[in-house]
Amino acid sequence: MRLTITSWNINSVRIRLPLLRQYLALHQPDILCLQETKCRDAEFPMNDIRALGFDYVEINGQKGYHGVAVLSKLPIASIDKGQFCRHGHARHIAIKLAPEAGAAAGLTIHNFYVPAGGDVADPLVNPKFEHKLDFLDSMMDGPARLVAERAVLVGDLNIAPLETDVWSHKALLSVVSHTPIEVDRFGRVQAAGPWIDAMREKIVPAEKLFTWWSYRSPDWAAANKGRRLDHIWLSEDLRGALDGISVCKEARGWDKPSDHVPVTVDLRF
Prior knowledge:
By secondary structure, the chain is of the alpha+beta class. It has helices spanning 17-26, 46-51, 127-141, 169-172, 180-192, 198-202, 220-223, and strands at 2-9, 31-35, 56-60, 68-72, 76-80, 92-97, 108-113, 151-156, 195-197, 212-213, 226-227, 230-235, 242-247, 263-268. The chain has a single domain (2-268), classed as Deoxyribonuclease I, Chain A (4-Layer Sandwich), CATH 3.60.10.10. It is built from 7 helices and 14 strands. The strands form 3 sheets. It has a 6-stranded mixed β-sheet with strand order 3-4-2-1-14-13. Strands 5-6-7-8-12-9 form a 6-stranded mixed β-sheet.
């Protein structure tokens, strides 16, 4: 059985519904995890999404900010909205696939949108950065602590951990998303699973790999000042199922794009 899971920070699902249609005309993942949907549950374009072929849709929305959703072509047995965020933001949703999902039955998929953390990498003077670190800590030790067993974790984790995950390691060492304190927390969350970095299993760590390019650059492609902020992790028991990874970089050049692009994992059971 082949199972494809795509993660995409869509940066407003209603505004970028045409981009979602454009992506799905080219790619047909079995499961699509969205972050930054930016709408309340009642405002989510449910009919449009189901018309795109996803019969099972679970959402965790919030007015104007944050928000995550899981769109699935396979039946879902249960959902969970973990309390990782002390402010009550809609930043996590997890689903477990139903027995009707065949060889993928029982698979848990976590969809995360980790706080960006503001501009100053000092938790003593920047509450947003302190909140980000607290969120990461709760992924390890909180009441909704993650269990890395027959599980996939995807999302905009807002950290680029490796030197090759940013356009310039030296230039970004003090920039939020690549600072040592964040990278250390990121590593501890990953080790707590333990989780496999699926993207770097298939794309060697020596190779530059980006999933986000700032809106501030007038020519993002030429400058190529990107960061890998979007991630796909697998529990150790899924290592043998990992068959491929892809990054849809061309989506960054579409009309009115998100600043993030879709990333996809291909599993074979």
